[in-house]
Design a protein that fits this description.
Elements (H helix, E strand, L loop, with lengths): L1 H9 L3 H4 L1 H7 L12 H18 L10 H14 L1 H20 L8 H4 L4 E5 L15 E5 L4 E5 L7 E5 L7 E11 L2 E11 L11 E5 L10 E6 L2 E3 L11 E2 L5 E2 L5 H8 L2 H30 L1 E3 L6 E3 L4 H30 L2 H32 L12 H12 L4 H16 L18 H25 L5 H34 L3 H21 L1 H6 L5 H18 L3 H6 L5 H4 L18
Parallel strand pairs: 1-5, 2-5
Antiparallel strand pairs: 2-3, 3-9, 4-8, 5-6, 7-8, 10-11, 12-13
Helix pairs in contact: 4-6, 5-6, 5-9, 6-9, 9-10, 9-11, 9-12, 10-11, 10-15, 10-16, 11-12, 11-13, 13-15, 14-15, 14-16, 15-16, 16-18
């Protein structure tokens, strides 16, 4: 059945989209190396970046192939978090930004050969989530038709891109305010060389290494520009903003903020990449923890009897809940990527919001699942070589990268309240007579949760303090954020339920149905008071919730190992984890 579960998670085109990356990163060149310093790990990550580039048939084209690009992130982070980070910056943010703008006449061959590595400089020390207010300037020089790139204040330094000399020659895409004759046209992107082939920074480029982070080992730096001259071609132009060589500016967008958002639009694709990264490391951690739980013996309930950890409800219940969440999250991501590659116009705007909401939810769930996996593996889970602790720490970067999760949800909450969301129609079926083992009823309940929070948020917004927008929003934001959470939970549950319906065999459908039930029931239980008060659950349903959840867990225990084998993890890489190299006991649990 593990093959059926893998087909469910990776789809019919896994051989073309995922398998090339899986084969690449399963090789010995990406094996974990013990005892390296952070600086040595960073240098190794850049070496491995070159290995990826050598394997990709079209390195520049990878930036526009969202399915393959996100698939790379699902496997790269497992073996080397630093490599995955700089690969994401290089291909998605840097090359992606170049190809998303006018690219005619721009030579990208140096990237295809990896003669130069790309980085992306947007946020500043004083401007993170309000990057539209950043201070770095690119002033048009009429005498040369070029630009002067400058950091006007200490707080305007670019913080915290990978701009050190490690890794070789680097170019940067820099977000800066386009100033022409003292007129600020808003934030645009500029291509600026940072280092030469020997790694030396060009004149006017000042780079200060930052202290070591607790996340992925990357050469994070604070970067300053001191009157750095750039040619006219440095400006990345498009319909949102064009500048002629004589200084005439035109734009299809009259709003500077909209120009900024269009300029840095590649950050939206970056959210898909961060989601993919978190899913890959989460599935790996869960596969490790599940194998360990089947191999590790502990005391049973009778003297002298040893049983595997997985036989204990206190051990397998949280792991199976994590499996259900991980399946739902993976399948939600698949849906978002499909919508991304097929959407346009207003539909694309909705997909971008969904990608942002999903990124926040998935990376938060990844933290929770990997923390559970680390704990279930005890002290051995703390070893970097066992493939959980390092990836858990590195996942913190995804929670902040490409938009801080909380800020993403606050923005989405505002949009959903102001017309970007319509609650699902209320089911006409009364709760009396409906059962908690009915997946349609569970989905209706998840929709009810969203409807409840939507109503509360709208009520708070209408009745909030007049004349004080901040106070009014502060009174609204908590139920609005709960609305966002309820919305993404319902979509993830629906993605899992749809996948169960598409499964090829009855047993596979049944197991995936139990996963859906476990995932949905936990959300229903968390909101059972509201659902009862709203008349969407009966008192009997509330009393039955614990038993129905236990029944779903009981049904899943025999398939726990097969469900994580469906993750198709890097078996060669996982085989080197010390805690999984010891001889395993005879299997005591076998699927019926």
């Amino acid at each position: 059945m593990s093959a059926d579960f893998a087909r469910t998670l990776f789809g019919p085109h896994a051989e073309q989209i995922h398998e090339p990356w899986r084969r690449l990163f399963n090789g010995t060149r990406f094996a974990f190396q013990e005892g390296l310093s952070p600086q040595e790990r960073t240098a190794l990550s850049y070496q491995r970046l070159n290995l990826i580039n050598e394997t990709v048939p079209d390195p520049v084209g990878l930036a526009t192939d969202i399915e393959s690009l996100t698939a790379m992130h699902e496997w790269a982070g497992v073996v080397d978090a630093g490599m995955a980070t700089i690969a994401s910056i290089h291909w998605n943010l840097h090359i992606g930004s170049l190809v998303d703008h006018d690219v005619k006449g721009r030579d990208l061959s140096s990237y295809a050969r990896m003669d130069r590595i790309g980085t992306f400089l947007c946020t500043e020390l004083d401007h993170g989530n309000d990057a539209a207010s950043l201070e770095t300037t690119a002033t048009f020089d009429r005498a040369t038709s070029g630009f002067v790139l400058h950091t006007p204040t200490p707080g305007a330094c670019k913080w915290m891109p990978n701009t050190s000399s490690t890794g070789g020659a680097k170019n940067a895409v820099v977000a800066a305010r386009l100033v022409v004759d003292d007129v600020d046209h808003g934030v645009f992107l500029f291509l600026a060389p940072l280092t030469d082939s020997t790694g030396l920074h060009y004149p006017g480029v000042e780079v200060r290494p930052l202290p070591q982070t607790a996340s992925a080992p990357v050469d994070h730096c604070a970067t300053y520009f001191h009157q750095v001259r750039l040619p006219f071609e440095a400006l990345l132009q498009g319909e949102h903003g064009r500048l002629s060589r004589d200084g005439r500016f035109t734009s299809s967008l009259g709003n500077p903020r909209k120009r900024f958002l269009q300029s840095v639009r590649r950050v939206h694709a970056g959210k898909l990449c961060m989601t993919a990264y978190s899913l890959g490391v989460t599935r790996h951690a869960l596969a490790v923890a599940m194998q360990h739980s089947h191999r590790r013996l502990t005391s049973g309930m009778t003297t002298g009897r040893k049983v595997s950890l997985i036989e204990h409800r206190s051990h397998h219940a949280p792991l199976l809940a994590a499996v259900a969440t991980t399946y739902a999250a993976t399948l939600l991501h698949r849906d978002v990527v499909r919508q991304w590659t097929g959407g346009a116009g207003a539909e694309q705007e909705e997909t971008e919001r969904l990608a942002a909401v999903a990124k926040a939810w998935v990376t938060w769930q990844a933290r929770a699942v990997m923390t559970e996996c680390r704990e279930r593996c005890g002290a051995q889970g703390l070893l970097l070589s066992n493939g959980i602790a390092g990836q858990l720490a590195a996942n913190e970067g995804t929670i902040t990268a490409e938009g801080d999760n909380r800020v993403i949800w606050v923005k989405a909450a505002g949009e959903m309240l102001l017309g970007g969301f319509t609650p699902a129609p209320l089911s006409e079926l009364p709760p009396t007579g409906r059962t908690l083992d009915d997946p349609a009823y569970l989905q209706d309940l998840l929709a009810d949760v969203g409807r409840i929070w939507h109503g509360r948020a709208r009520s708070r917004l209408r009745t909030g303090r007049r004349g004080d927008p901040l106070a009014r929003w502060n009174g609204t934001v908590t139920p609005a954020l709960n609305l966002v959470e309820a919305h993404v939970y319902r979509l993830a549950a629906q993605a899992l339920l749809d996948a169960a319906g598409r499964a090829s065999g009855p047993k596979t459908r049944a197991v995936l149905g139990h996963l859906h039930a476990l995932f949905a029931l936990r959300q229903v239980k968390a909101h059972s008071g509201d659902l009862l008060a709203a008349g969407r659950l009966t008192a009997d349903h509330v009393q039955q919730l614990p038993d129905v959840e236990e029944a779903a867990i009981e049904a899943l225990v025999p398939y726990s190992l097969q469900l994580t084998e469906g993750f198709a993890v890097l078996d060669g890489f996982m085989g080197e984890h010390p805690m999984l190299r010891a001889p395993a006991p005879a299997a005591e649990l076998a699927p019926a």
